[in-house]
Amino acid sequence: MLKAVILIGGPQKGTRFRPLSFEVPKPLFPVAGVPMLQHHIEACAKVPNMKEILLIGFYQPNEELTRFLVNAQQEFKISVRYLQEYAALGTGGGIYHFRDQIVSGNPEAFFVLNADVSSAFPLTEMLSFQKEHGEPNSFVILGTTANRTQSMNYGCIVENKETNEVLHYVEKPSTFVSDIINCGIYLFNPDIFQHIGTVFQKNQQDMLFCFCFFEPTNGWHRAEAIRLEQDIFTALAGQGKLYVYKTLSFWSQIKSAGSAIYASRLYLNQYHKTHPERLAANNEGGPTISGNVYIHPTANIDPTAMLGPNVSIGTGVTIGAGVRVRESIILHGATLQDHCCVLNSIVGWDSTIGKWARVEGTPSDPNPNDPYAKIDSETLFRDGRLTPSITILGCNVSIPSEVIILNSIVLPHKDLNRGFKNQIIL
Ligand SMILES: Nc1nc2c(ncn2[C@@H]2O[C@H](COP(=O)(O)OP(=O)(O)O[C@H]3O[C@H](CO)[C@@H](O)[C@H](O)[C@@H]3O)[C@@H](O)[C@H]2O)c(=O)[nH]1
What we know:
- By secondary structure, the chain is an alpha/beta fold.
- It folds into two domains: 2-253, Alpha-Beta Complex (Spore Coat Polysaccharide Biosynthesis Protein SpsA, Chain A); 281-425, UDP N-Acetylglucosamine Acyltransferase, domain 1, CATH 2.160.10.10.
- Helices cover 25% and strands 28% of the residues.
- It contains ten helices and 34 strands.
- The strands form eight sheets. A seven-stranded mixed beta sheet has the order 5-4-1-6-11-8-12, with helices on both faces. Strands 14-17-20-23-26-31-33 form a seven-stranded parallel beta sheet, with no helix packed on it. Strands 15-18-21-24-29-32-34 form a seven-stranded parallel beta sheet, covered by helices on one side.
- Strand 2 and strand 3 form a beta hairpin.
- Helix 3 packs across helix 7 and helix 3 crosses helix 9 (228-236).
- The N and C termini lie far apart (51 Å).
- Bound molecules: guanosine-5'-diphosphate-alpha-D-mannose (GDD).
């Protein structure tokens, strides 16, 4: 039997996702109409013989997370549990801390997935690859090709082209190493814990040394904080244990709010195959739909509105006459009054956009002329100035009629009285 672990991080993570991550933990932010994590869970639940999915992170369990877990268990008819780390233990420390839970029931293998990626999740393909290629107890990293410059923002893998064995692994190198990058999706078996255990023991010894000669720190925590990438993969490379399965299917990181719009586009596109029922169609008496659009059944949309491509409309959203929405995510309870226009933006929960207002951002899509380009999830500022990016309205923001909001981030609960351009409105 198989298991899956999803690394969901915690509240200190997701800073590039503010102000949206103030309202909802980043892994629950809706992408293509459903919480980001639901795409992972659905993919894991589809793998034959999958018995349990564990979410590991350092969020305090809250109502929203609990509700999500209950719904996911019911929908996918599989055990989905949350295990809370007492502190950020890193990508390897969390799974090591909860190893007893992971190996209980004797799974022959388990997947580990980063929560902040969107992907077609070729998990069954990874399983077959492992059986055909690797040594019986080898581990598999999902890899994809990036362009030379962007590859350095990821874990880089040098492979043996014949066997696909990982010969060399460098996490976010400062000079070019390889254009094959780590997608943050792995197939392990319980042997991985021996390797993490070795690092843990070494850390403990180092800590002991520190205790003797320097000021005592929380040694247990420091020894348990282990990174899969730097501490484990780098050491395993070239040992005949680690293999890379390269996928041609879609994959992207979800770090910034802009990358959530891009990830929505990828998933909406996939819905043609996986969930055609989630895609809105042009029906008589309904709004005009252009391209891939998700509309929650509780949304109230005027038939003269035009939506798409790449639009997701959340629960209870109201959209008035003549409204135009493109490349945007409209979160639950928002109201778009008559004839307003929303482009490349995320409109926060319960926000209102006045009549004839224009809310617009600059897309941060990958270069369409480069087949290996990835989205740049850059920082908010470059050379001390706000980088033009998508416009984000936090929750409960009110935009007056007939104004333009361009490339701006508006923090929650703001009642604007004029237009803004390239600003963060605190
Ligand atoms: N439970 C838990 N999860 C964590 C922790 N730290 C990070 N995570 C989760 O682990 C994932 C990776 O997070 P980062 O540490 O921010 O790494 P990264 O910059 O995204 O890079 C990783 O992913 C890339 C692909 O998206 C890889 O290319 C790269 O090599 C690396 O694995 C995210 O889903 C994050 O929530 C932790 O202490 N505990």
